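User: I'll paste a sequence; please echo it back and then give the predicted structure.

Assistant: Echoing your sequence first, then the prediction.
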Amino acid sequence: MVRRSFTLIEAVFVIVILGIVGVAGSQAILRVYENYALQRAFNRLELESRRVVEQVARHLEYAIWDTIELDSATTLPSWRAKTMEAIWGTYVGDETSGVNQSLFSGYIDLKNSSDTTITTPLSNLNETLVGKELYFLRANTHAPIQTITDPTRLELASIPLEISDAAYVIEPETYSLELVGAADNQKLNLKIGDDEYLMAEHLHSLELWREGQGSLLRLRVCLRDESLDRILDCQGKGAGRGICAEGFCKESVVMR
């Protein structure tokens, strides 16, 4: 006699096998998706943390070193910058000859300069420089200009930590970093004077500290990602471990 149907036991076995294959397949697909989402979140954090740490480091590279102040509680810095926009007029017109002459040559005669008296050959200094600041390039220090003694000599209002043979006259702006929002999920803002710019979101922490007898700043930025927190179960089993505890971190170094 020819069989044209399955027995009940055969049908049950087929259903069980299909169920096992279905469960295994769905779990495999879920793992593939989680791995994809995890890798995507890591790549996003890698790019974003690198961008933020490089931007902060780049701004600090233009800082006048002796103006960098680290808040004792948050380690967030404030500083005054020597950006190109801060460099004040190099030339002044001579009404008699009609030729532009050097207002400040940029050269410092170290032999004929003292703590606060600066001699600058080839300059034609005038009172428009009073109140601005003299920034010494190689020393990375500064001091306010108090008076103009003669066309090649000026007096500083304070004693700089060190002077060098090259300088700029600048009107530096004040920069600072600020954290806004709840802990572990903050925004990092850059303030330049009265203006404020968003640098990063989902910031877990930002740390700066001095090394090398103060001649080096080390910077560490850690970010969070909501999708990564969900995948790693940072509110449950993953809490307090690895990236859940510290975020995704990048470091950089700024030298004097």
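The helical segments are 8-61, 226-231, 242-246. The first helix runs from residue 8 to 61.
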